[in-house]
Amino acid sequence: MSTRRQALIALAAACAAGASGSAFAQPWPARPIRMVVPFPPGSSPDLIARLLTEKLAAALGQPVVVENRPGAGGNIGTGMVARAAPDGYTLLFTINGPLVTAPTLSRNLNYDPFRQLAPVTLVATSPNVLVVDARLPAHNLREFVALARSRAGELNYGSPGNGSASHLAMEQLKAMAGVDLQHVPYPGFPQVTTAMVGGQVQAAFMVPAIAMPQVNAGKLRVLAVTTTGRTAVLPSVPTVAESGYPGFEAISWQAVLAPAGTPQAVIDRLYRELVAIIGSADVRDKMRAQYFVPAGTAPASLRQTMASEKTRWDKVIRAAGVQPE
To answer: In Å, what is the CA distance from 62 to each residue of 22, 23, 55, 65, 143?
Structure first.
């Protein structure tokens, strides 16, 4: 009787252990996933993230919820993801600023994007456009530079935060053109647009998806694009380089990352699903309609992009004398 009782107890324990083990070995994903966008609703990363999440949710069989956490040029939300549990249930959708220039320009950055974030894929790239208040007497880049020189220190330019591609593009232009403009940072491009239309700032480098509706409405004027050659999304707009500043380049890009330590199987699955989504005809058409060029690169390629971009922008930061904040 004692032997039979011991056998039953052992069997019950084995079943309990098996049930417990299967609970911890649930296939990913077993619950909703949050996609943190460290910029406000309506910003360009928010728009593209929402374009992807519905299809990603369908592919994964779980909801993928966009969570906006703006502030400090994207550093707040990025840091939150960097410190999140690496379990595959928190992802980051961000632009280049918090990844490649924040380590140089932020004195008290509480995350290391190269050590605490795992690249998944480069989603898309976009030229920036130099836009000005349509009431400004400048119809091309040369006229804008002449005006800025005649009103040294009087004109303001907006950006979505210190170290953003928008900010550094203008600092690069300031250094190359020898003009003095005052920087006014905002939480995101929607706020920059509102400030420009309201007359608080007179110029900005912006992504076309945000700027062009206001240009088409006659409230802003586009002067140049920041690609080295003319871009197919705005073929009639001259480049900064051809307008008198050879070598000028400042593009924006967007990417998906996860906390470092996220299981490789999860990274690989996310990469495969996202590349398939980015490559789908309807998503590519929608991206191009918002002036984005679809990408979809391997995780290792995104890491290389981060490293090379950091090297390039560090040189711009030093040359322009931009100080950490």
So the answer is: 19, 18, 11, 10, 53
The pLDDT assigned to 10 comes to: 53
* Contact between residue 244 and residue 276 where contact means Cβ atoms under 8 Å apart: no
Architecture of the domain whose range is 33-125+251-320: 3-Layer(aba) Sandwich (3.40)
Answer CATH for 129-243 from 3.30.565.10, 3.40.449.10, 3.40.190.10, 3.20.20.140: 3.40.190.10
Give the dihedral sign, CA 221/227/229/234.
Answer: negative
Note the pLDDT of residue 23.
39
Per-residue DSSP letter, 233? T
Task: Enter the tokens of residue 38.
Answer: 């460290």
Q: So what's the pLDDT on residue 131?
A: 98
Domain spans of the chain, in order of start: 33-125+251-320, 129-243
pLDDT of amino acid 62: 98
Query: Quick one: 314 exposed, middle or buried, by C-beta within 10 A (0-12, 13-18, 19+)?
Result: middle
Q: What mean pLDDT comes out for the span 120-134?
A: 95
Mean pLDDT of 192-220: 94
Query: In 3D, which of 290, 172, 289 has the Cα closest to residue 224?
Result: 172
Quick one: which of 72, 92, 89, 88 has its CA closest to 80?
92
Query: In this structure, which amino acid lies at residue 54?
Result: E
The SS3 of residue 311 is helix
Structure confidence by residue, pLDDT tens digits, 53-104: 999 999 999 999 999 999 888 899 999 999 999 999 999 999 998 999 999 9
> Torsion angle, CA of 161/169/236/133, rounded to 10 degrees?
50
Instruction: Name the phi and psi angles at 47, rounded to 5.
Output: -65, -45
- CB 182: neighbour CB atoms within 10 A? 12
User: Whole-number mean pLDDT of the chain?
Assistant: 90
